[in-house]
Amino acid sequence: MKLKNTIGVAVGTLMATASLGAMAQGQGSVDTEVFDKYYSSASERDLGDGNLLGGTLGYYLTDDVELALSYGAYHDMRSENDTGNTNIKGSLTSLDAIYNFGQVGAKLRPYVSAGFAHQSIDNADGSGRNHSTYGDIGVGAKYYVTDDLYAKASLDSMYNLDAQNMEWMAGLGVGMNFGGGSKKAAPAVAPMPAAPAPVASACVDNDNDGVCDAIDKCLNTPPNTTVDATGCAVTVEAVRVQLDVKFDFNKSVVKPNSYADIKSLADFMKQYPKTTTKVEGFTDSVGTKAYNQKLSERRADAVRDVLVKQYGVPANRVSAVGYGDSHPVASNATEEGRALNRRVEAGVDAATVTVEQVQQ
């Protein structure tokens, strides 16, 4: 079979297949090819040149990298010494990794390849078969006639690992890609026009409290009255819890009789989770300013630790600060007054809301 006849039949077959539907290149696609390669054996071997006719099945691991398995049979090969074996038979099986240059969908994609091959061929003298293993590298190019049908030219250099000599092949082929993940982008579809927004019904608010009469549960609210979402008046009342913990002279240890008051403050803060407090420590006037400042800070920290570690108030809601002897609440001239000044204070403010519904 001549080269041009082989390629002509293959092109006709693949063109017919291409008409069945749109294909795609790229990662995940399968590459099928038929080829006819001119084979030139090493001068050391008693083999003439011949043709290798066969096919390739490849799979694209990525858009550019392909793994290909090929099989071909030798034709028109004769012994150079014409020992009587005028038509030497054989085959070549190869496995190659191929890197394709250029973008998926380009008309021309050059490539390089590398792999291994096994040759099984009649000995020139007709006695048995010769088996050889090759390491091969190649170059070539694919020209895409359509998005997925291509013609290919190749040149392969083959090193016989057993005989340690070089051989080469040059060939033409046609192939087609099937499937794959890299497809041409679909044409953009114009978005559907948005549906017109519904027209809100008119809001009637006879008492001008900002709540439509249709949902207003208190229709006769007096002017300038604060209302809730249902149109009813609300009263905001401030509530406060205060803490006053006393300490022994020159001490920063919280006494047992103060724990109940600290717990009451903690319970209040848990009831109103958005509240925070500042724990403030103080001393009497006995001692130096610097010493009293440190002592007041230790007292504030001690109460804060009880709130946080024992009663579970989040640490980010409680701060502590010491003021030394700078803010007495009683005279430091008497023991009774000094006892009142050895203290820690804290206060928490919260707001309660009462809804006053007007009878309709």
Summarize this, please?
The strands form two sheets. This protein has an eight-stranded antiparallel beta barrel. Strands 9-12-10-11 form a four-stranded mixed beta sheet. The chain starts with a helix and ends with a strand. It is of the alpha+beta class.
The number of domains: 2
Number of strands: 12
Overall mean pLDDT stands at 83
Q: Which topology of the largest domain does CATH recognise?
A: Porin
Q: If helices are DSSP runs of H or I spanning 4 or more residues, what is the number of helices?
A: 4
Summarize this structure as a short list of keywords or feature phrases.
single chain; alpha+beta; Porin; 2 domains; eight-stranded antiparallel barrel; 12 strands; 39% strand; elongated
Detailed description of the structure:
With 360 residues, the protein is an alpha+beta fold. It has two domains: 176 residues, Beta Barrel (Porin), CATH 2.40.160.20; 124 residues, 60s Ribosomal Protein L30, Chain: A (2-Layer Sandwich), CATH 3.30.1330.60. The chain contains four helices and twelve strands, in the order αβββββββββαβαβαβ. The strands form two sheets. An eight-stranded antiparallel barrel has the order 1-2-3-4-5-6-7-8. It has a four-stranded mixed β-sheet with strand order 9-12-10-11. β5 and β6 form a beta hairpin.
